[in-house]
Amino acid sequence: MATSGIIRCGIGGWTFDPWEGTFYPEKLPKKRQLEYASGQLKVIEVNGTYYGSQKPETFAKWASEVPDDFVFSLKASRFATNKKVLAEAGDSIERFLGQGLTELGDHLGPILWQFMPTKKFDAEDFGAFLALLPEKQDGLTLRHVVEVRHESFRVPEFVSLLAKHKVAVVCADHAEYPMIADVTGDFVYTRLQTGSDNVETCYDKPRLDLWAKRLKSWSTGGDIADLAHADPERTIEKKPRDVYAFFITEGKVNAPNGARSLQKRVD
After folding, report:
1. All domains of the chain in start order, with CATH
2. Cα–chain center distance at 38
3. Which of 47, 117, 186, 208 gives the lowest tally of CB atoms within 10 Å of its CB?
4. Cα(256)–Cα(240) distance, rounded to whole angstroms?
5. 84: number of CA atoms within 13 Å, CB side?
């Protein structure tokens, strides 16, 4: 049997009023929502860290409320990714990474550096930004992934830069933003953003089956030929990779159902 990486399916955040009484049991206190969500899912992407910093005690508290095998993906500070000149983001990157997030310990998953849809690809500047991303913080190994949302990034040169720095790129299933399914790091990160509140599982069964097949292939070192690549001629090393999949944006009401349904298919 082929060795495979861990597949984790999750959602964005854990506080959302429509989930109360649907995903969350009736009358579950808000202070126990993270505890419950982390028992149902394997990963949650935290959006709040994009807008502002947290205290070390907050990260430690989150870590204390989740199971041993649960991880958080943290969206990095907008002050780093929204700069006109990315090469000048060093101070913002240091502040973000130094706020105490390593209190999560083994619960720290990938760090997502998300760029504005108006940000265009500049090879020299973006390469300088990637060079600023450290491999470790306080002795803890970091995993970086970028989400770019401008068509200009869908070029082989961008993929080469990411591979050079061992940084992953978000494979975005989005109605407007470009999909870049190239595997450039030691893990794969996909954001499933075209769900529906009218579908009980966010994505319907055929789409869940299809994405389950893709996640399994990625986890065993495969590439997904039917998804759009920036460099379709490039080959990747076939080795096990951890895979992260998030139901987010559209269909948020049923995102937890989607994540649980997809997780069942890949387990």
Report:
1. 7-266 (3.20.20.410)
2. 16
3. 117
4. 26
5. 0
